[in-house]
UniProtKB/TrEMBL annotation:
The lineage of its organism: Eukaryota, Fungi, Dikarya, Ascomycota, Pezizomycotina. GO terms for cellular component: nucleus. InterPro entries: Fun_TF. It comes from Exophiala spinifera. GO terms for molecular function: DNA-binding transcription factor activity; transcription cis-regulatory region binding. Its main location: nucleus. GO terms for biological process: positive regulation of transcription by RNA polymerase II. This is Transcription factor domain-containing protein. It is found in: Nucleus. The keyword GTP-binding does not apply. Pfam families: Fungal_trans_2. Keywords: Nucleus.
Length: 393
């Protein structure tokens, strides 16, 4: 494997082993970071990792090496790099410094991804690192220093994983203290209230993430007092849902005529949109699984997954797959699972976990022949019955 040498990399003296790990990270970033193959996030992380040519102990660089080593060699050989990351972040003294704050937040996010990639049932430990990121963001007086356009891809990356963690915590049986609050909207397109189409840095449209947060607040939060402005929340939800529905269109993205075939990142964005509309239908509008427009969305989602052949994106895969009914649709979903497991860039046992959970939902739907049990009850029972807080990122 050839180690790339982009212009932003500083000439830190790396050994042959570390150079090989760096090359693996650069070529397989979507395996580790998700949700797409976009280069913007990986390039930004590497810029920060090599921002100081004299500092080979940079926690971001060590985090990159830890992730790559975990994927290539397993947890035993990667632990040394992970330990260096933790020690460096804990030993930081000046958290008011913009550079230190950026490094430590990014390093902690890389530790979060490290935990997501583990094979064992200790996967639930990912929440500890994400909680740490959330606490820093919500309490650091210096966080405003990072609200700049040049950091937008980094902020969107955190926002994506915060939102999916919010979804997970709301459905799981024991919400973790400190992770129960909804994510703060830090995407620059939201903060600046930009009317132009936001740059898609991470592969999931920001309006989908916003709608998912609003949906969790409305449909799952049990205490109305947790929502400061109920009417405003509903209005925002309606606007976001309308905008996303307009993009999906009446016939779905699969049938849109185009001079060229859509790239994979566009398909992943469309898959997130369809999954979001399906989820809103179910938990906000309480739509029946047999309703025509809902079944059309499900059909479009399955057709899109079939066209993609493989999918490493846990949340939209889970939402769409749970809706499959009949042999044809379920066989199509099982084929996607099988192909995804064989993908050389698959995320550990990620696909196996999603398949196991989807099959549990199918079993409950098949037993619910008289529709006496609503969708959300089944959903919560399956997700809440897992032995560890599940990763849907």
């Amino acid at each position: 494997m050839r180690v790339p040498c982009p212009t932003y990399l500083s000439p830190i003296g790396l050994g042959q082993k570390e150079s090989y790990l760096l090359g693996f990270f650069n070529e397989s970033r979507s395996l580790i970071l998700g949700p797409t193959d976009e280069e913007a996030l990986a390039q930004f992380i590497l810029r920060v990792a090599f921002s100081d040519a004299s500092d080979a102990t940079n926690p971001v660089l060590q985090g990159v090496l830890a992730l790559a080593s975990l994927q290539m060699h397993g947890s035993l050989q990667s632990f040394r790099y992970k330990h260096l990351v933790i020690s460096s972040v804990k030993g930081s003294s000046n958290w008011f410094d913009e550079k230190t704050l950026l490094r430590n937040l990014m390093a902690t996010m890389l530790l979060y991804h490290y935990e997501l990639s583990l094979e064992s049932n200790s996967k639930g430990r990912w929440v500890n690192y994400l909680c740490t990121v959330k606490k820093i963001i919500n309490t650091s007086p210096a966080i405003h220093k990072l609200l700049r356009h040049e950091y937008s891809v980094f902020l969107d990356w955190i926002y994506y994983h915060e939102v999916l963690a919010e979804f997970t915590v709301r459905h799981w049986k024991v919400p973790y203290e400190g992770c129960g609050w909804a994510p703060m909207a830090r995407s620059l397109s939201i903060v600046e209230k930009s009317s132009s189409k936001a740059e898609d840095n991470i592969g999931c449209p920001i309006d989908v993430l916003q709608l998912l947060v609003h949906t969790c607040r409305q449909a799952i939060v049990t205490k109305t007092s947790e929502i400061e402005d109920v009417n405003g929340e509903i209005e925002d939800t309606n606007v976001l849902e309308h905008n996303i529905s307009m993009i999906v269109g009446d016939y779905g993205p699969v049938h849109v005529e185009s001079a060229s075939s859509p790239d994979r990142n566009s398909m992943i964005s469309d898959l997130h949109r369809i999954a979001c509309l399906i989820y809103v239908n179910r938990v906000v509008h309480c739509v029946s699984g047999t309703e025509f427009r809902h079944r059309r969305l499900v059909r479009e989602g399955i057709l899109l997954l079939t066209k993609m052949q493989t999918c490493q994106n846990a949340w939209p895969l889970f939402i769409v797959a749970c809706e499959a009914v009949g042999d044809d649709q379920r066989l199509a979903i099982m084929d996607v699972f099988e192909r995804s497991r064989q993908d050389r860039r698959r995320r550990s046992s990620h696909v196996h976990f999603i398949q196991h959970t989807v099959e549990a939902v199918w079993n409950q739907h098949d037993l619910n022949t008289e529709n006496h049990v609503d969708y959300l009850t089944i959903f919560n029972a399956v997700v809440g019955g897992l032995p560890f807080i599940p990763p849907f990122a």
